[in-house]
């Protein structure tokens, strides 16, 4: 099945099983804004807990913060967002749709790369164990031709980005004959810069109102509070401040569900270091963050680092961690060495000294910063994409979300075999005992087989069936979602068995 079709099924599955809904759907929805349903919010909270605890519990020198969404407007002038927070946009005159010019070109690069990968995949099947991929890449005429196309386009695109050459970006789109996905035509406008910040007004009267912005990132709330945290917590460099919070960007919407939204949530950690040590710490956090992703068990081959084509004005090093979504490798996390740009700018614009006194050096300085920034919603989509699975069985088929048990919204479903003979009461008793430790669900509707399938689709890792033998020996059948194997265990063992499987410690020990 084509990856695009799988992604459509995934989006439909998220709605059908209470993970993600279109916001304001009864009013025909609001573009690029989504609501998380009863299972979606549980999965989202579990992802946030995995990130938060891996940062704050596992690192003695990382603490938390929750800063306000509304901030003084001069902050965004100091950070460069007022003047430089722009995307290069291009409109198709026929469809009236607007696109990011850089995304259109990156998609074209991805198509060329996919052609190369298809040639390699075919050759692997043809030659089997004798296949030498390195030699094939260096000698096959079609691969070499496509590689040259890729390299030439990549070099031209990178130069245009670094030079902020909007005319050249449009010319690349024209020369590559890139068509609008909606109209199929190449009737493009010029490329223009478009500021992504939402603005509003704060004040009781129109004359006294102040223009402010919904924050486009959570990082600035950390920077303007860094000295408050450092002094009140007696923090010594190096130390980090972690934050989870909402941010808002007036994005030009890609057709990729919750991958890019106008209202989204970020998990960011700013790590303050001594100047001159930032690149070592950048390398360290790059490795640490990749381990965090790979610990979920979705396959190391599905992750890669992507070096930035153009560094932001504040950075001296930047890399993305990309995951292989059904629509290709895309960013889920960014790691940036932000130098001292942000803190120095806030010193300049606020007129306040926000330096750190280093007792070891007996001097004060503006710290350098290494940032790790991950989108909660993208991480949610990555987990769901990796977990979604359609399996053909001997007699039928099933759709299952093979979520890591530690992240699964519902940890345990308790199912009475029939709705009589005291079995429902016994099932309720089990839930009443385990609900303090796990998110449990009771289900008695339909046949036991249909209930298993329903829990598979939700992603519940364990189902416990209460039957007539339970009344005799206090045992139940526990069914494991991924293998569908069943075993008989005593009710008293359930807490231990499930607790061991869903403990965050299982992930943390891999980091």
From TrEMBL:
SUPFAM superfamilies per UniProt: Class II aaRS ABD-related, Class II aaRS and biotin synthetases
Annotated positions binding ATP: 249-251, 259-264, 331-332, 375-378
Any single GO BP term: glycyl-tRNA aminoacylation
Gene Ontology MF: a single term: bis(5'-nucleosyl)-tetraphosphatase (asymmetrical) activity
GO CC term (a single one): extracellular exosome
CDD domains (UniProt xref): GlyRS-like_core (cd00774), GlyRS_anticodon (cd00858)
Leader sequence segment: none
Entry keyword Aminoacyl-tRNA synthetase: yes
Pfam family, one: HGTP_anticodon
Entry keywords, A to Z: Aminoacyl-tRNA synthetase, ATP-binding, Cytoplasm, Ligase, Nucleotide-binding, Protein biosynthesis
Source taxon at top rank: Bacteria
Amino-acid positions noted as binding substrate in the UniProt annotation, renumbered to this chain: 100, 217, 264-268, 371-375
Catalysed reactions, as listed in the record: tRNA(Gly) + glycine + ATP = glycyl-tRNA(Gly) + AMP + diphosphate
EC number: 6.1.1.14
EC primary class: ligase
Span of domain Aminoacyl-transfer RNA synthetases class-II family profile: 176-416
Compartments it resides in: Cytoplasm
Keyword Nucleotide-binding among UniProt keywords: yes
Family the entry assigns: Belongs to the class-II aminoacyl-tRNA synthetase family.
Function (record text): Catalyzes the attachment of glycine to tRNA(Gly).
UniProt subunit comment: Homodimer.
Protein name as it appears in the record: Glycine--tRNA ligase
Organism listed in the record: Mariniphaga anaerophila
């Amino acid at each position: 099945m084509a990856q695009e079709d799988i992604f459509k099924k995934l989006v439909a599955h998220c709605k059908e099983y209470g993970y993600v809904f279109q916001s304001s759907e009864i009013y025909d929805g609001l573009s690029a804004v989504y609501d998380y349903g009863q299972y979606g919010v549980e999965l989202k909270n579990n992802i946030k807990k995995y990130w938060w605890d891996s940062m704050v519990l596992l690192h003695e020198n990382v603490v938390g913060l929750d800063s306000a969404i509304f901030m003084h407007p001069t902050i965004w002038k100091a950070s460069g967002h007022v003047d430089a927070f722009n995307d290069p946009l291009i409109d198709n005159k026929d469809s009236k749709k607007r696109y990011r010019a850089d995304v259109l070109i990156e998609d074209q690069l991805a198509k060329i790369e996919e052609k190369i990968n298809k040639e390699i995949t075919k050759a692997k099947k043809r030659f089997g164990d004798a296949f030498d991929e390195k030699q094939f890449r260096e000698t096959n005429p079609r691969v070499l031709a496509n590689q040259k196309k890729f390299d030439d386009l990549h070099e031209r695109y990178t130069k245009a980005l670094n030079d902020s050459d909007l005319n050249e970006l449009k010319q690349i789109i024209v020369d590559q004959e890139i068509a609008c996905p909606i109209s199929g035509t190449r009737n493009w406008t010029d490329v223009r810069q478009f500021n992504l910040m939402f603005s509003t007004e704060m004040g009781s009267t129109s004359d006294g109102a102040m223009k402010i912005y919904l924050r486009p990132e959570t990082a600035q709330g950390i920077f303007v509070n860094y000295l408050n945290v450092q002094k009140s917590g007696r923090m010594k460099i190096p130390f980090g401040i972690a934050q989870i919070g909402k941010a808002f960007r007036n994005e030009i919407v890609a057709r990729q569900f919750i991958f890019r939204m106008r209202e989204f949530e970020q998990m960011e950690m700013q790590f303050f270091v001594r100047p001159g040590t930032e690149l070592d710490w950048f390398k360290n956090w790059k490795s640490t963050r990749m381990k965090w992703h790979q610990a979920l068990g979705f396959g190391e081959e599905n992750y890669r680092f992507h070096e930035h084509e153009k560094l932001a004005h504040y950075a001296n090093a930047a890399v993305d961690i990309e995951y292989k979504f059904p629509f290709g490798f895309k960013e889920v996390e960014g790691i940036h060495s932000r130098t001292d740009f942000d803190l120095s700018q806030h010193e300049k614009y606020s007129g306040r000294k926000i330096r750190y006194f280093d007792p070891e050096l007996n001097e004060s300085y503006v710290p350098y910063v290494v940032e790790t920034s991950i989108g909660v919603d993208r991480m949610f989509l990555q987990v769901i994409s990796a977990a979604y699975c359609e399996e053909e069985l001997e007699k039928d088929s099933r759709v299952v979300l093979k979520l890591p048990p530690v992240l699964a919204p519902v940890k345990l479903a308790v199912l009475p075999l029939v709705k009589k003979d005291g079995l429902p009461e016994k099932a309720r008793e089990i839930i009443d005992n385990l609900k303090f430790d796990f998110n449990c669900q009771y289900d008695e509707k339909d046949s036991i087989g249909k209930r298993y399938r329903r829990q598979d689709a939700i992603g519940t890792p364990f189902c416990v069936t209460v039957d007539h033998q339970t009344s005799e020996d206090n045992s139940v059948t526990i069914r494991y979602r991924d293998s569908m194997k069943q075993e008989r265990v005593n009710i008293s063992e359930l807490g231990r068995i499930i607790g061991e499987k869903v403990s965050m410690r299982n992930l943390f020990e891999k980091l």
